[in-house]
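Technical annex, item 7. During the second reporting period the consortium partners agreed on a shared format for inverse folding records so that results from different sites could be compared directly. Each record opens with the tokenized structure and is followed by the designed sequence. A conforming record, contributed by the partner at site C, is shown below for reference.
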């Protein structure tokens, strides 16, 4: 059927129903006429036509009342057998359609109870065909088999529909779960960005303020120098915070230029900011530096930033060593700090806070590894290995 006729049929269901039942009635009447020509004793025509008309008319209610309809069509078909007609599929058309409707719309147990009852009715009707006592297949087996075949086909269609519905529901649940997972991942990513930006800059500002207060009496010039650099730390925090929070809203202003994502090129600025807070950072490179994708570059910078923030907040000494080792496939980033002989490195706790968790999530999200822990001889080390070729199409978590 062409698309045009499908659209017309969908908009005129009553006309399609009337045409279908009229065609079925015509087929049934044709079966009556054909049976009259082959039967040894010619059955009465008009009673058979009346029974066919009643059974076809009953099919109008097959959708909302399938069981009463199959009962009516069964009685009419048995009446045709009682009149002496050979019960061929053409004469049983209304009963087969009714049984199919029952199989499609009712539970399995109801389907087979009705099918067995209809088959039993066909067997009883077969005994009203005296000229076919010598052929049990034509008189009994064939009508009952057609009824059962209609029930089987209807059950198959019902199972296929139930499977299609279940598969559609499962696919919808999977889409909802995937969307929920994406939302959670995005929230976690933004939460990590906010934590790293706010924690780093506020820690440096707090350290600068504490250092300035400590030097206010002993070295006022140095204290004023540190205080003078405080606006730089707060301004940098505001810039990164604005760029991060901008991810939470739709960008409707095309002229809004945001700062690019930070990377390892900003390590000198990060070292200067830590120096202003009283932390001396030594950076060494191993191997030949390779160009990094934006995701790996941002991930490495954020891990380094968070590690130095932890050193500023927790370490007993005011020194840290950073090493960047490049190989053909990986970048290994190591941040270590030593402790004073009489003070343990107790502030780096792998089980508390969000800093270590954030660094681990960032590293594993791009396919890298992460390790953080105490040295046996004292001190604390943060080490991660990142692949040089990451997925540059998705933001770093």
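Designed sequence (site C submission):
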């Amino acid at each position: 059927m062409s698309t045009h006729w499908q659209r017309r049929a969908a908009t005129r269901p009553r006309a399609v129903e009337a045409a279908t039942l009229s065609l079925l009635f015509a087929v049934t009447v044709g079966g009556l006429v054909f049976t009259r020509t082959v039967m040894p004793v010619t059955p009465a025509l008009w009673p058979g036509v009346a029974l066919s008309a009643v059974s076809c008319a009953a099919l109008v209610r097959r959708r909302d009342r399938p069981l009463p309809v199959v009962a009516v069509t069964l009685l009419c078909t048995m009446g045709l057998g009682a009149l002496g007609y050979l019960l061929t599929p053409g004469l049983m058309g209304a009963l087969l359609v009714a049984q199919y409707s029952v199989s499609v719309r009712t539970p399995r147990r109801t389907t087979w109870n009705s099918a067995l009852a209809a088959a039993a009715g066909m067997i009883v009707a077969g005994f009203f065909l005296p000229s076919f006592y010598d052929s049990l297949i034509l008189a009994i087996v064939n009508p009952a088999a057609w009824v059962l075949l209609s029930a089987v086909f209807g059950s198959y269609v019902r199972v296929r529909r139930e499977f299609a519905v279940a598969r559609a529901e499962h696919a919808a649940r999977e889409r909802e779960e995937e969307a929920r997972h994406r939302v959670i991942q995005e929230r976690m990513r933004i939460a990590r960005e906010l934590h790293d930006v706010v924690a780093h800059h506020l820690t440096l500002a707090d350290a600068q303020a504490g250092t300035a207060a400590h030097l206010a009496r002993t070295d006022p010039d140095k204290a004023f120098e540190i205080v003078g650099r405080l606006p730089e730390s707060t301004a940098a925090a505001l810039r990164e915070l604005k760029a991060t929070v901008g991810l939470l809203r739709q960008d409707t202003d095309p002229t809004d230029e945001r700062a690019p994502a930070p990377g390892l090129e900003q390590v000198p600025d990060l070292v200067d900011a830590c120096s202003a807070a009283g932390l001396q950072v030594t950076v060494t490179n191993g191997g030949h530096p390779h160009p990094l994708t934006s995701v790996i570059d941002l991930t490495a910078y954020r891990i380094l930033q968070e590690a130095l923030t932890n050193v500023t907040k927790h370490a007993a000494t005011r020194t840290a060593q950073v090493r960047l080792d490049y190989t053909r496939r990986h970048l290994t980033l190591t941040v270590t700090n030593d402790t004073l002989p009489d003070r343990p490195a107790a502030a780096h706790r792998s089980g508390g806070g969000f800093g270590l968790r954030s660094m681990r999530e960032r590293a594993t999200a791009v396919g890298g590894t992460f390790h953080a822990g105490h040295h046996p001889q004292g001190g604390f080390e943060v080490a991660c290995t990142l692949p040089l070729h990451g997925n540059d199409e998705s933001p770093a978590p």
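The CA atoms of residues 212 and 219 lie 9 Å apart. Residues 252-258, 340-352, 391-397 have pLDDT under 50 and may be disordered. All partners now use this format for quarterly exchanges.
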